[in-house]
Amino acid sequence: MNVKSHVSTLPRLKLSGVASALALVLAGIAVPAYAQSNEQSTEQNEAKLERIEVTARRTVESLQEVPVAVTSISEADLTANGISVLTEIQQYSPNTTLQTSRGTNSTLTAFVRGIGQQDPLWGYEPGVGIYIDDVYMARPQGAVLDLLDVQRIEVLRGPQGTLYGKNTIGGAVKYVTKEMTGDMTFTAQGTVGSYSQRDIKLTGQLPIIEDKLYLGVGFADLSRDGFGEFLQSAIPNQDLENYNKDLWAARVNVEYKPSDDWLIKFAWDKTQDDSNAKGGYRFLPSILTNAPVPDSVYDSYTSLPTTNEVELEGMSLVVRYDVSDNLSLKYVASDRESYSPTNIDFDNTAVDIFDVPAEYVDENTTHEIQANYSGDGYSIVGGLYYYDGESCGNFDAVLGVLGRSIGVPGLSREVTGCNNSQSTALYTQGSFDVSDKLSLTLGARFTDEKKTAMVNNGLYFDNVYPSSGWVPGYVRPDGDLVGTVLGSDSDGDGVLDDAKSQSWSRFTPRIGLEYQMSRDTMMYASYGQGFKSGTFNPRAESNEEGVSPEVVDSFELGLKKDWSSNFRSNLTLFSYKHKDRQYIGVGDAGDGTVLNQTLQNAAETEGNGIEAELSYVATDNLSFDVSYGYLDFKIIKNDVIPPLIGLSNSPENTFNFAANYLLETDIGMFILNANYYYRDDYLLFETSELLAQDAYGMVNASVMWESNEGDWYASLHVKNLTDEEYLVGGYNFVGAPDGNGSFAPGLGGDTTLIGYYGDPRTVHLTLGYRF
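Given the sequence above, the corresponding structure tokens read:
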């Protein structure tokens, strides 16, 4: 049996095909751009590119002036394309993966240039940083953000270790909310769509004291039925929708301007996601119970409750003081916490073969003092940053069938623990004019970090769940588990004995040269370093030491050029070396029947690539955008068991072509747009080919209408028009192949090979009113 036959089998578009397509686009755009320099019509002369502002370097700058590979998507573009969730941004940023992870609707899998973190367990650090208004989101749970009251999304590619610190070795994604305008505004928007989608969004701003005090609010209630269903369930009378959505989110902003020099801003946000736990698609029929391969990739089976929860809440305070025209001081403080009880049925059958109920609890506090100074021919930003975070959790690997086969009521391996971090950093970065065309960028960050890890890991000869009532009639027994490591609470004081502590410090530099050839042409070369925090193994089974930080050394060459008033190209060449990569070794090579796991700095890899982003405004009404990413990957050191064979969630080629047309009529303005997005084939796991997605292309189309007065608007969006099926997550617990297309059973005694999929074709109709 060929497992891959269940994955989308679109013909693969080879690199040569993508390169040829890109060359044709370049030729088709660039030639008219040059030709029209002397022969433009009056209408074409009026067609101009917009100025795009970003805060990639912690200050407001034009996109074309920033020597960083960054994609910025404005509120207008988000609205016109019907982009409603953070994961859709991946289509518009080359060499970027933003996908919903396995098991829940809210956990993010993020990779940029092949660098990220595939495992979302507590204690593991992400490789791509997620920020809401410069406030760091430390955990992937809840990071699949629904877009509410957003001004723009920025994707910064490459290590951002100088200004954004640890855990941005792949890049950073910034969610920038709207600033207050000082006017009273209100927007009400409703959406209906496929699978009984019913969304309501309300946003508004209210001046409390004219020119002094403003209040902003936002609320969203988002729901739809599932893309599939649980065909069998061991739990009676529960909701059997699979891939459904049941979420609400709220934001409150308060801004106070006591004078022209001061700004005080308080923000609060909360998200409550009660969508069902997601069930995966079985590529192989169960050998222990009646669970054949489902007809739909969105159908599943489960022996756990389908209830699931992700609760996020955060507060932030920003105080800015403009000391003079040249100097600005800013203080940013935040407090964020999350709680997520989740049910993940690894085997996806109605029997307790391999179930993993779990809880995640996170809380972190940050403080940052920052100064921006602009002088004659130079500018400097610097600051002091402090992070204090607690990341805890527990999960039970319930192997009930295996336990009963050896004569006990069940069998569970329970792992509980915390991985807490205190981190302090001092950073500065400056840009200095060497001449009227040449400038130099120098940056440095010093980070000092201490982590304390506590893990209990043991066996219980019964089915164990995190708390009483987790499944109907369950009462959690008293007493300790059999076998504990890295800490036990022997004196009952609530503090685990023998907790492991370790400290790391790192100096991360950046140096760059920028050459402004002309007003419209900037070339740059840069070297930057980033690191991903050292950590402890949250699944440790012996008294392990922590592993060292991962380090990325990256080189970039970039060209940002406006060839004319209506054609822009931003090109980047990059090369990096990724050292001391942290990997879990899982038993013996290829043996899916064991759960022995040791965390090591076990690999070193290299990457090289190209990124191109092109914009062409053909007329006042018609524009085109093209983005292309190419990533070449090499393994230098490979001590992982089983060994690395490629990159996770990182295709060799990504490509997007978008067209936008504006039609003005007597009844209002219409915006028609469409895009084609292509992803090359990719692996879900870096050590196995069993879960791999073939290359696919996706087509999206939209039409938006706005009244002449600008108060009423409506839009119709069709996403994934050709209904492509594509993998975004999975689990691989099978034994060795038998040579006949089948596999020996893996952990739990079954052939557990599971896939999770992205959204099918959907249609959305939105109607809104604003004043």
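The first strand starts at residue 53 and ends at 54. Try to locate this feature in the token string yourself.
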